[in-house]
Write a structure and sequence with these properties.
The protein is 3% helix and 52% strand. It starts with a strand and ends with a strand. It is built from one helix and eleven strands, in the order βββαββββββββ. Strand 5 and strand 6 form a beta hairpin. Strands 2, 4, 5, 6, 9, 10 and 11 form a seven-stranded mixed sheet that branches. By secondary structure, it is mainly beta.
Length: 127
């Protein structure tokens, strides 16, 4: 099985930056059994929202329009770790952020396409 642990969340003022990390561990390397890693976010009462995705093999990335130009996903395959650099944060970025391993060709934005999930980390952006 695969375990995912997020870190790096916290409270930041609007315009500030945070970097989230997602470390994968387990008996099997996550890079060998999944297509890639995604970041999602969720606020109470709303569905989980796609933020970004990175493919393990090629490093190809996809970002939601709402974060494009401000957030950047990256990976370190040797460490089985994925990062989400968040700059120019806005109050509407406030959410619990989850990393998830999985995805598939043509299906990286749907939460149902991911097999493994972290516990989430809170990001709060004050105005």
């Amino acid at each position: 099985q695969v375990q995912l642990v997020e870190s790096g969340g916290g409270l930041v003022q609007a315009g500030g930056s945070l970097r989230l990390s997602c470390a994968a561990s387990g008996r099997t390397s996550v890079t060998s059994i999944t297509y890639g890693m995604g970041w999602f976010r969720q606020v109470p009462g709303k569905e989980r929202e796609f933020v970004a995705f990175i493919r393990w093999t090629t490093g190809n990335t996809f970002h939601a329009d709402s974060v494009k130009g401000r957030f950047t996903i990256s990976r370190d395959n040797a460490k089985n770790t994925v990062y989400l650099q968040m700059n120019s944060l806005k109050p509407e970025d406030t959410a619990v952020y989850y990393c998830a391993a999985g995805g598939r060709v043509g299906g990286v934005r749907g939460a149902s396409n991911y097999e493994y999930w972290g516990q989430g980390t809170q990001v709060t952006v004050s105005s």
